[in-house]
Amino acid sequence: THCVELLLFVFIFFFLCLFSFSGSNCNSFKVNLPQTVKVMTGSCVTVPCSFDVQDKYEQNLNDNCEAIWRSRNNVRQLTDRNPQTGDLTKKNCTTTFSNMQTGLTKDYYFRIDCQSPLIWSFKPPYVKIEVTDNFPSPTLTPSTLKIKEGESVSLTCSAPAPCLPHPPTLIWTPKLGEIQETLQENQDKTKFKTSVMNFTASHLHHEQNISCTAVYKKQDGGSDSQKTTNSPKNVTVSVSPSGSVLENSNVTLTCSSDANPAEQNYTWYRADGGQETVFGNGKILNIKVSSDMRNLFCKAVNEIGEGRSNLRHIDVPNSIKDVHYVNSAALTEAENHQANTSTNLSYENVEETRECSGKTN
Question: One Pfam family name from the record (predicted)?
Answer without folding.
Answer: Ig_3
